[in-house]
Specification:
Blueprint: H1 3-11, H2 27-32, H3 34-42, H4 54-74, E1 79-80, H5 87-99, E2 103-105, E3 108-111, E4 116-119, E5 122-126, E6 137-143, H6 151-168, E7 174-179, E8 182-187, H7 192-207, H8 226-235, H9 247-255, H10 261-264, H11 269-276, H12 278-293, E9 297-298, E10 311-320, E11 330-338, E12 343-348, H13 355-366, E13 373-377, H14 381-392, H15 397-404, E14 407-409, H16 410-415, E15 418-419, H17 427-433, H18 445-458, H19 461-486
Parallel strand pairs: 1-2, 6-7, 10-13, 13-14
Antiparallel strand pairs: 2-5, 3-4, 5-6, 7-8, 9-15, 10-11, 11-12
Helix pairs in contact: 1-6, 3-7, 11-12, 18-19
Length: about 500
């Protein structure tokens, strides 16, 4: 087979245009954030706000380094295709396939007849069966730094596999997905209809045939469309503002001519229940009423009951994740608001090696009679982290198990009993809705972690203090929410 024939298969005589073609890396966005995809083609001029910062760049770099190290360790002689994109890169990829190169790193894989183009991670020659290339074929290896397999990973690899099949005249049944904690061999021969649906959905978004709803604020979409999406949701009082009302229920409301929260609060509850059923109808109606009044509404027939004890502690963790190039994941900060003493205390580590020390200090602060205390947290994040700490430091397993026995998920207590004018029951949404104001606006967990990393690198205590203030506000926010809803009872 000649190179010209392979190029014709890959291009169908057409030119590649990055905006009008589908690349496999968009699979995740189509599945998870279709509003982002729609914005890519249709957002009003000037609305994009690039919020990709230092952390995102570090994570991207770690992913590239991980891929390069994985390939170097297993296929040290793999041919690296350069340049990164374009007709020249495609030509070099196809020439290497014709020559039977054992491994091809970052190959250009195009199937423009199906609107698909992209750059894969690795192609490996397999001599178990022939193809139009000769007595061999190529199979796809996708390399992900993630620990767990996501469906989008499998579909992305399956799309590359189908593209390779169209080029070489033989489509393997399986792909290999290399994760951080092992390699998976995924059967993809039966996923053609799923791939067609994903690409078809992308075409609808590209062509404006459908306009998807944004997500709930404050993350209506990912960068660079987050700010625009948030603004759009609030301007049109979109139904995604109703926490606890899912996409199927919102679709039924829109089919009935209800598109805005302020339209919903004018409807009688019986009508909303008829549309959504008694559970979702009550959630939609009362949450809309909470937006109308600006006040929390206790669910009819319920009472907000938060487990109590003699001592009330509101605590939150600051954590360092695996994006750091040298430091393993760990809890670097435990902040606590003591409700009775009305004081905040912090236990701060400098590096992963000091993690057990701050847990020892926190356990001592709670004291031996832990059953006399209730430790309030928001979501199960702190519980998950304590379980990870127990695995890293087995000697802490007993004390932390006792501690967890006194923990109370404040979010779950409130969400089960109260309707609030919020798009989601995150602390970042609930606390401001009840009048709490942070001292560092727009300073989130990522910014805190970066400040901690700067402190590790430089020893600048001011960086550490920024992370501590943010954590202290989390603890104060929980205390504020509790008092606002219960009066301190």
């Amino acid at each position: 087979m000649r190179l010209r024939a392979l190029l014709d298969r890959a291009t169908s005589g057409e030119r590649v245009n990055r905006r009008s073609r589908f690349r496999p890396s968009l699979v995740d966005k189509v599945l998870r954030d279709p509003f982002w995809v729609w914005c890519r083609y249709h957002e009003p001029p000037g609305e994009a706000v690039n919020e990709v910062g230092r952390y995102e760049r570090m994570r991207y770099r770690r992913g590239i380094d991980h891929e390069n190290a994985w390939v170097a360790a297993r296929y040290p002689d793999a041919l690296a295709v350069r340049p990164d994109f374009g007709y020249e890169a495609l030509t070099r990829t196809l020439r290497a396939m014709l020559e039977g190169v054992p491994a091809i790193h970052q190959p250009q894989l195009w199937d423009l007849g199906r609107d698909v183009y992209g750059r894969g991670d690795l192609l490996v020659r397999d001599d178990s069966r022939g193809s139009d290339l000769g007595p061999y074929h190529y199979r796809v290896i996708e390399i992900k730094r993630a620990r767990k397999l996501r469906d989008s990973f499998a579909l992305q690899a399956a799309l590359y596999n189908r593209t390779v099949g169209a080029i070489q005249g033989y489509t393997p049944d399986r792909v290999t997905i290399a994760l951080r904690e092992g390699t998976r061999h995924e059967e993809v021969s039966g996923r053609g209809k799923e791939l067609d649906r994903v690409v078809s959905r992308w075409r609808e978004l590209r062509d404006g045939a459908v306009v998807p709803e944004p997500g709930p604020p404050p993350r209506a979409a990912e960068s660079p469309w987050r700010v625009y999406g948030n603004k759009l949701v609030h301007e049109r009082q979109d139904l995604v503002l109703l926490a606890g009302v899912g996409a199927p229920q919102r679709a039924r409301l829109r089919a009935a001519g209800i598109h805005r929260v302020d339209e919903l609060w004018r409807r009688p509850p019986e009508e909303v229940n008829d549309l959504l059923g008694p559970h979702h109808g009550a959630v939609a109606y009362h949450t809309a009423q909470s937006y109308r009044t600006g006040e929390p509404i206790v669910r009819p027939g319920h009472e907000l009951r938060i487990p109590r004890a003699e001592r009330r502690l509101y605590f939150a963790f600051g954590t360092s994740d695996d994006v750091h190039p040298a430091m393993p994941p760990h809890v670097y900060l435990i902040g606590c608001r003591d409700g009775a003493k009305r004081q905040c205390v912090e236990f701060f580590a400098r590096g992963a090696g000091e993690e057990p020390e701050i847990f020892d200090a926190f356990i001592d602060y709670v004291g031996d009679e832990v059953e006399r205390s209730r430790l309030y947290h928001w979501t199960d994040y702190e519980i998950t982290q304590m379980k990870a700490v127990m695995l890293r430091w087995p000697r802490l397993a007993g004390p932390l198990t006792r501690l967890m026995g006194s923990c109370v998920d404040l979010k779950q207590c409130i969400q089960d009993a109260v309707y609030l004018p919020v798009p989601r029951f995150s602390l970042a949404s609930v606390a401001p809705a009840l009048g709490f104001k942070r001292r560092q606006s727009g300073f989130g967990v990522i910014e805190s972690m970066l400040c901690y990393w700067d402190y590790l690198d430089t020893g600048n205590r001011d960086m550490a203090e920024k992370a501590i203030r943010r954590n202290r506000d989390d603890c104060l926010a929980m205390w504020h929410v509790d008092r606002k809803l219960t009066g301190g009872r």
